[in-house]
Design goal:
By secondary structure, the protein is an alpha/beta fold. It has one domain: Glucose-6-phosphate isomerase like protein, domain 1 (Rossmann fold), CATH 3.40.50.10490. It is built from 7 helices and 5 strands; from the N terminus they run αβαβααβαβαβα. Strands 2-1-3-4-5 form a 5-stranded parallel beta sheet, sandwiched between helices. Strand 3, helix 5 and strand 4 form a beta-alpha-beta unit. It is globular, with a radius of gyration of 15 Å. The relative contact order is 0.18.
Length: 164
């Protein structure tokens, strides 16, 4: 994520249900701020445009609501942050397929055993799997991980500790 952002690329995030909220939370922390004042960073939650989501879901398939957006907005060097507590969400798998075709890196946050998503990732991708069966526990760890990622990005891009 640091490399992508420092090279002028962006992070696209996708997920369903509570994971959709995690996408929006992550993008808000990067575009706004996490713990320090800084320039906005390019991150986009693919979960927020109801017109795109409902048009694609209606005209094509719910499984394509994120992959079509990755096709539209994703470029080589961008990162797809993909959330799926089961690791098996069809629309997340489709988005990952498009991201990999576009030479994007994938950071997948899953639970349980990682499911089909864990098997799809390449050696260049990152898989953060919470080895738990309960969705609530998985999402709690995902939220903590989001904050850790935001803090790490801020320190890597802007140096020091936010409290300095």
């Amino acid at each position: 994520m640091f490399s992508a952002l420092s090279n002028g690329n962006k992070i696209l995030a996708c997920g369903n249900g509570g994971s959709a909220a995690d996408c929006q939370h992550f993008a808000a922390e990067l575009v706004g701020r996490f713990e320090r004042e800084r320039l906005p960073l390019p991150a986009l939650a693919l979960t927020t445009d109801t017109s795109i989501i409902t048009a694609v879901g209606n005209d094509y398939s719910y499984n394509e609501i994120f992959s079509k957006q990755v096709q539209a907005f994703g470029q080589a060097g961008d990162v797809l942050l993909a959330f799926s507590t089961s690791g098996n969400s069809a629309n997340i798998l489709a988005a990952i397929d498009v991201a990999l075709e576009r030479d994007m890196r994938v950071v997948a946050m899953t639970g349980k055993g990682g499911g089909a998503i864990g098997k799809k990732l390449t050696e260049a991708d990152v898989h953060i799997c919470v080895p738990h069966d309960r969705t609530a526990r998985i999402q709690e760890v995902h939220l903590l991980t989001i904050h850790c990622l935001c803090d790490g990005i801020d320190v890597a891009l802007f140096g020091g500790d936010a409290n300095d």
